[in-house]
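Aim 2 progress. For non-specific serine/threonine protein kinase, the working sequence is reproduced below.
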Amino acid sequence: MPEIEHGSGSAQPATSSGGSPDNALFGKYELGRLLGCGAFAKVYHARNIRTGQSVAVKVINKKKIAGSSLMSNVKREISIMRRLRHPHIVKIFEVLATKTKIYVVMELVKGGELFAKISKGRFSEDIGRRYFQQLISAVGYCHSRGVFHRDLKPENLLVDENGDLKVSDFGLSAVSDQIRHDGLLHTLCGTPAYVAPEILTKKGYDGAKVDVWSCGVILYVLTAGYLPFNDPNLMEMYKKIYKGDFRCPKWISADLKRFLCRLLDTNPETRKTIDEILRDPWFKKGYKEIKFHEEDDFGCKSDKEDRDVTNLNAFDLISFSSGLDLSGLFDDSYNLVDNGERFVSAESPEKIIEKIEEIAKVEDVTVKRKKEWGVELEGRRGNFVMGVEVYRLTESLVVAEVRRRNGDAMAYNEMWRIKLRPELRSLMYQQLETQVAGN
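Predicted structure tokens for this construct:
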């Protein structure tokens, strides 16, 4: 049982005389067993004392996110979650806060992640189709409300006790307000194996179309039992995604294969839309349109309640997303990797390697060529060894990884940060557009 803090005002602690547990959260929820934990939050099973309903409560430590960029996403995240009231999207009931903790009260989805189920073996086409129909219903609903998930994958899909799918983790989602004057989104984010090829080109993308791509990857995983694009080397996997290099297993029907090829079309202009998916013969088999009344299913909050939630200035799902934010890879300089750094360039691999060799010669550092586009640099006294490898990411972009392989960290830092990096900065990819905060 976690340590409970009680809020002020209307959220008074429960008392023994009131018939509720003394340690009830805000006098409303009795917290039970730990369901999961992450870097910034823990999730507990809880019971609504008044109704007896089981819920999940995510307990967030404010101190761990205070002062970080995460806090700037709070109001945007609340705005997104308030828009989504659908049978196949995890419900958020309320957000409570104290001086040091944030409590997000959510629907308890008892069946666990879809990922855990598919890891035991692939589904039949009929079962895969049923989950996919529910997924498309939820995703289409999100798009109609101007919300784009951008991190759809089996780990973010839950299954309830009735075997129905629930979309969760909108931590990397975007809203239509973030679309730039060119009609596109520009933040690079998502989980590598599920990311659409146009995200990798850094030219902007349609949020609805990248969600459709991710849905296609999910459908492939459900019916094939493995990923369509996979490689232990991240850059090699990105190459496969960019080229649309995948094959359907022999047990997949011709109709499903055709359908998947349209979902995983590398050209977003000819990729299927949600409306086209809904009309597709493979998809339509056994499909019943999901009808519901938002007010009946979820209730309505008063304007005052909406203001109270917004003014909490505390709700933030982004910090708990398991997705990989790729935006750091495309900063106007570099980002950190293990024992080194990584940067993107629009120059050719040959030019980058030649520039490194030129600088190394001036610094009297030994250079050895490695692989096709790689070099190893060794200090004069052998006091450091560093490697640089350049990978072709797309037709116009490459990624260079710089790593310390051996020797003194200070000597490596001096060579990389003081000697090499300033000289290479002119080759590093520069943003062509002014970044818009939050997208």
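The chain has three domains: 16-107, 114-327, 331-427. This observation will guide construct design in the next reporting period.
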